[in-house]
Amino acid sequence: MGKLVRALSRDGFVKITAVDLTDAVERARNIHHTLPVVTAALGRTMCAASMMGNALKSDGDSLTLRINGGGPVGTILVVSDDRGNVRGYAQNPEVDLPLRPDGKLSVGAAVGTDGMLSVIRDLGFGEPVTGSVELVSGEIAEDLARYFVDSEQVPTACALGVLVAQDQSVLRAGGYIAQLLPGASEDTAARLEENVARAGSATAQLMGGSVEDMALRVLDGFEPSILETDDVSYRCGCTRERVLTAISGVTEDELRRMLLEDGKIEVKCRFCDQVYTFTDISELLAQRS
Ligand SMILES: [Zn+2]
Question: Any idea which architecture 2-232 has in CATH?
Answer without folding.
Answer: 3-Layer(bab) Sandwich (3.55)
